[in-house]
Input
Amino acid sequence: MNTEDVQAGQIHVDEVRVTSWNELQEQLYQDAWHESLGRFRSEFAFRGMPDASESLITPLMRLGGPYQRVEPPLLRAFRKYAPRSSVPGDSVWNWLAVAAHHGLPTRLLDWTYSPFVALHFATDDPHEFGMDGVVWCVNYTRAKEHLPAPLQRLLRDEGADVFTAELLGRGAGTLGELDRLAEESFVVFLEPPSLDDRIINQFALFALMSSATERFDEWLNNRPGLTRRIIIPAGLKWEVRDKLDQSNITERVLFPGLDGLSSWLRRYYTPKP
Output
């Protein structure tokens, strides 16, 4: 199987189409060996999607219309009406993460350090097993090379590859300040606070574009070598799903509580057509 440059909509990225579960594992853990540590330590973040043709657009963009103008009042209203105990501290980045976590349209995109969690989200709906799925893989360590110099310094001084809310707050206290750090758009990988078991179990992190109007896939398209897409053929989805269930990668674990339990059981007992 060859990796080749292909077009996804208007986006050109390295893409590979797997044909088996074993090949899928090889691709997910490709380049995970860290020579200086002598350990397997992947530098990739993963995002699974049930439809390989779907673009990386944010929930905020899905609102349509002049969505960039409603971003500030959306977040302002959320901060105004949410219980103060909802967020540790008063960092705008914690507020943004909590808002996105609870379904508010924001410019954040969900990612995970876990390739298996990404596979879950590519195969969590049997009604979408008739279409190819995809796992996006982005090298967050190399992505930091495209940050403005002040943010690169913060990560370097901390010996970190991604930001916490506290660390990002040292470089930019608001969305507006983040936008103004550089003329060219950039992406920040942000680890949310451990608000609940859902965030912890999903091994979650967010991708945050410096501009509300910049699409992440278009940004990646102009920076070759940062990302690749692993296509999961429709015919392989049932096997992937069954093996994830056997590995305990299910809604019951990733969405702790009765809602997650019910979602898992409903899907688990959905008959194969």
